Amino acid sequence: MDKLIITVAIIGGITTREKAPYPPMTPQEIAESAIESYHAGAAVCHIHVRDPKTHAPSMKFELYKEVYERIREKCDMVINLSTGSGGRLLYDPQSNTWNTSELKSPEERVEHVLKLKPELCSLDVGTLNFGPRAFINLVSIVEKMAGLIKEAGVKPELEVFDIGHIRIAKHLIRQGIVAKPPLFQLCLGIPWGIEATTENMVYMRNNLPGETLWYAFAIGAQHFQMAAASMTNGGHARVGFEDNLYIQKNVLAKTNAEMVRKVVEIANLMDREVATAKEARQILGLGK
Could you give the CA distance from residue 142 to residue 140 in angstroms, rounded to a whole number? Predict the structure, then answer.
């Protein structure tokens, strides 16, 4: 079994300071949280950006560039930039109207990836109801994004929220748009994707193509349990404020690094060695 790669998902697009005072929001805070997590044992950081004044989710290239450069100045961790923004559709039942302002073109969704050329980026391969919104990832859009990502020399992390998404990912691999070995992230517990149970995780893992690298994570209360289940079943682990606010029941986590250290402790108990950033690159086949 490979050494364990720990990814820290610094901050997503949903968490607010009203829910918890600790998650990083500004580019400097996001970068500093990633660097602290690197020293705690994370080899990879998954990056979304927020407007530094309003803390609203953002797609601005300048913000991604600032975070990217701040991290790269201080450490050699693998940087994984999100491409999930730009796929949200919201319906207001009271006014009977659709809000399409958050729907962007494939080119807009990967612009920062094409310019910065990180080693990894996320690629959400399927559409689903995502809380009150629809997360729109039509196959034609995903094909276009995957092609652009491949041309940039970046490895996509295939985000799958339900079993049908794996079917789409296999299609991308067969078409040669996603190179082998593919990297999958099994995303469990997101309303309204597949529920976060070990049985569901194993079922999804068993439907992955051969010679696949994979993680599994769950949001909320199952966060650390799913990290443990993933690492004991041959996968890697992801933790962080994007997916969870608590270090233990009813106790808010104060830093992403705190959550990373907890996963390191779990890995040590299981005799699963934790990979350095250099070792993670070898496992993921980066730089080849």
Answer: 6
